[in-house]
Amino acid sequence: MRIVVLGTGIMGAPMARNLAAAGHDVRVWNRTRAKAEEMGLEVLEAPTAEGADVLITMLSDGDAVESVMDGVALEAGQVWWQSSTVGIAATERLARLAGEAQFADGPVLGTRQPAEQGKLTVLASGPGRDRLGPVFEPVAAKVVDLGDEIGAATKLKLVLNLWIVTLVEGVAESIALAEGLELDPQLFLDIIDGAPMGSPYANLKGTAMIERDFQPSFPLAHAAKDAGLVDEAARAAGLDLPLPAAIRDQMAKAIAAGHGEEDLAGTIWAARSS
Ligand SMILES: NC(=O)c1ccc[n+]([C@@H]2O[C@H](COP(=O)([O-])OP(=O)(O)OC[C@H]3O[C@@H](n4cnc5c(N)ncnc54)[C@H](OP(=O)(O)O)[C@@H]3O)[C@@H](O)[C@H]2O)c1
Q: Could you give the strand order of the β-sheet that contains 140-145, starting from the edge strand earlier in sequence?
């Protein structure tokens, strides 16, 4: 298939590479052109869907996707896979921009390494998803089909990301507490390792926190954005969930201290300044 990928960041670049390696004809565009040029694929001067069967957006948030798609004309017969995490309201706005083209609401789960290995999980809903089998195949280990409703995939993504940010914030605060009480935080990780209340992700992120090694897999700024999107969705559904806003605000403190481009494990900076 002829595919255009808009956004060659942590996720978009390996997705585009895997699509090209599978034999698709892939062109890429990125706001910071140098990042796209590193990839050895044809680089577009400006965002366009001209000549494409499938357009993929993998950008930071809903505003970025909206501003980039503002100048892109889509036609009947084309499919737009919107894979960035943008929340429910922006997904509804973006679907309207698709016009005659078919829209697929398709946020992904998995971070830098699964993206590089072509082992993402795609949550897919909306009318365009049925035509994306050959596009999902090289990038995903698993596709969860959520039916025709645009927004259904985004809703599940928010549920999952609430779990992820809650887990990471919980690990960060447990380690901060251990350090603040002058205990070795490794004792905490060793006890939860393999235990029913533990999780491999908690140990992965906890080790990064103890070592203060925050090379980004999932940037903290995006995690805070996702906590905010969860908060909006919960309020709109009439729910009283205190955690999403509390986590968003805690992460915002670490971002304000200059850690937004680090991994989300860097949320520990909000509790520990060194
Ligand atoms: N990393 C993960 O673990 C992960 C996992 C699942 C889902 N996601 C979601 O996937 C999306 C992309 O994440 P990522 O990790 O690939 O992020 P990233 O590495 O920060 O890449 C973000 C991309 O968006 C572009 N961008 C940002 N603002 C823009 C604007 N105003 N106009 C045009 N382009 C803009 C960036 O361009 P520049 O290069 O010019 O800055 C870059 O191409 C996000 O919605 C994120 O929440 C991430």
A: 108-109, 120-124, 140-145
